[in-house]
Queue: 4 jobs
Job 1
Amino acid sequence: MTAFPAPDAHPDHDPVDELAERICRLPDVFQLVAGPGTGAPELSWGDRFFFVGSERMRPFATIVVRNVPGFDERSDLDRPGVFRLNVELGRAEFRDLFGYGPEEFAAHQSEIDFAAPGRWFPHPVYAVQGWGSIVNPGAEVDGLLTHAHRRSAARARRG
C-alpha cells in the first residue's frame, strides 16, 4: 500500500502548490500544468492534472483554479484564494462516501453546496464517472488521494 506523504507546513507556500507537491511525491506521478503549448484551452490554464506512469491519458486527480463559464461554475472558483481538488474515486468509493452511486447524482445534485470549503461532494460535472471534489482541501484528502493513486497505478500496470 502506498502511504501518502505528510504535508509540509510552509506558511509562505501557495496552498495549490503545496497540495500539488504532496501529490507529486506519490510514486510515479506526473503533473501537467495547463498553459500555452500544452494544447489546453486558455480557460484551463493554471489547472493541474496528475497521472500515474506513462499513460498520461486519464488523470487520477486534478486541481482547478477558476470557473469555466457555461461548463463548470457551481463551485464559484473565481473567488480569491479558492481552488478545487477533484479525485477519481470509482463507483464503490463514491457510493461509500456519498451514500448513493454516481448514476444517482442527478437526483441529489439540488441538495449539494458545490462551493462549501473543506468537505467532499460529487464533482459538479463528472460525478457520473465516479469523481468527487473538495474546495480548499486540507489533510482530509490524503486517504482518497491514495485510493485514487492506487487505482490509477493498477490501471497503468494493466496497460
Job 2
Amino acid sequence: MPFFYFDSTFLLLIPALLLAFWAQFKVMSTFKKYKEIRSASGITGAVAAKKILEYNGIYDVKVESTPGELSDHYDPRIKKVRLSQANYEGSSLAALAVAAHEVGHAIQHNIGYAPLALRHSILPVTRIASWAAFPLFLIGFFLQTPLLINLGIIFFAAVVFFHLVTLPVEFNASHRAIAQLEQHGMLVTEEINGAKKVLNAAALTYVAAATMALLQLIRLILISRD
C-alpha cells in the first residue's frame, strides 16, 4: 500500500484509516455478541445453507467446513459454500446470517447476477494489478519516469474498480440472506434485526476497503503531479 510518502496528501487517508479501524472493531464486537445468541429454530449454519440452496432449486453447490475464523466464502469456480467451523456447526444468529449470506452469492451465481459475474471475470487481472501497481509507481517516482508512474496509477485504478464492483455484490447477497431466512422461517421476526446487524457490520468492512482504495488512488494522482 502506498504509505511510503508522507506529505500533506497523506491526510487524505486518515478518514479511511479511522473507518477501517471502526469497521474492524464493529465486525468483531457484533459477531462476538450474536454468536452467543442461539436461534429459536436451533438449526446450524450448514443446515440453513443447504435448505436455502434446496429452496432455490440449486443442487450443484456443496456446503463444507473450512478452517479459520470468519473465513466464510463462496467459491464460484467449483461451486462450494465454505463456512468456518463455528458458523458451519453453530446455530447462533451470527452463524445463520453468515451462512445465508454466502448462499446469497451462490444464488447470484445461479441466476447470472451481473455484478458477481463482472467481479469474477476481472479478479485475475485485479490480482496482477494489485501486485504491480505500487512497485511500478514507486520505481517511476524515484526514476522520474512518467510512463511507469501512469502505469502504476492505471493498475491501481483497476484495483479500485474491483472494490467498487464488490459493494453491490455484498449488499445484494445480504439482502437475499435476510429475505431467505425470514421467508423460510429460519429466524423469527425478533431475530431478524440481530442478523441484519451482523451482515451490516460485515458490509462496513467492504465500504472501508473501497474508501481506502479510492483515497489512495486520489493520493497517487496528486503525488504524480508534484
Job 3
Amino acid sequence: MLDATARKLIDPPLNALGKTLAARGVTADGVTLVGLALGIVAAMMIAVGLPLIALVPLLASRIADGLDGAVARASKTTDFGGYLDIACDFLFYGAIPFAFVVLDPSANAIAGAFLLMSFYFNGTSFLGYAILAEKRGLETSAQGVKSLYFSNGLLEGTETIVFFVLLCLFPTSFAVLAWIFGLLCFATATLRLFAARRVFTMKED
C-alpha cells in the first residue's frame, strides 16, 4: 500500500548511488547477495537474543534490496537478476520470523507458523498474479521498474519492513504482532484473488 509513495522518496538517492556503483564495476547480482547476507546476519542475531542490534544489518539489507535494481538500471538488467532478487527476498522474509521462533519457541512457535503460512499464501497470490500479468502483457511501474509485474496490495514491502522493525523493537510482543500481521497478509492475498478474478476472467483481445 505504501510502496509507491516510498519509491518517490527513495528512488532518487538510490538511483544516484546505483550509477556510482555501476561505474565502479559493482554488479546488481552482487548487491542482491550482499543484501541477503546482511538479512541472514540479522536473523542470526535475533535468534541469539540481539534483536535491537539486528536492526542495523536488517535495515542495511533492505537498502541493498532497493539498491540492486538501481545498479541494474545503470548497467544491465537481466531476467536472472530479477529472479535472484525475488528468491532472496522470500528467503529473507522467512528467515526473520523463523529467527524469532528460535529465540523463544514456547512463546512464538504457533504464531510464527501462522505468520509463515500467511506469507506462503500472500507470496503465491503475488507470484501467480505476476505470471498471468506477463501472459497478458500487463505492465506497471507503480512500485518501481521491476523484472516482473508487482501487483499492489494492502501489505507490500514497505509495510513488511516496518513490521520487522517493530518485532525487533518489541520482541516480547512477537506473538501478538505476528497474529495481526498474518491476518492482514491473508486479507491482502484474498483481495488480490478477487482482483485476479476480475482481471483474468476477461477474454484476451
Job 4
Amino acid sequence: MRQTANFRPVGLASMGLGHYAVINSVWDAARTLLHDWPVDDGEEYLEAVKACLDAIIGDLRPEDVRAAFVGAAQEAGIAVIEAAD
C-alpha cells in the first residue's frame, strides 16, 4: 500500500478535553486507534484495527477503512464531524 492511502477527512471531537483531530489516511487512522483511542476493546474498534491492517497489506480500500473508523468512533462515543459532499 502507498503511504498516501488517503480518504475523505474525518473530524473527531472530544478525544480528550479540548482535543480535536482530522484523520484522512489509513496511517493516521491506525496511529490514532493504537495510540490515542479512549478504549481498546469493542467490536467496531477491533474491526477498524483489522481494516487498517488489511489496507496496509493491500487487501482493503482506504474508503473501507474510513467507514470502519467512523463506526469505531461512534462506538467509543467520539463525535464525528464529516464534511458535506
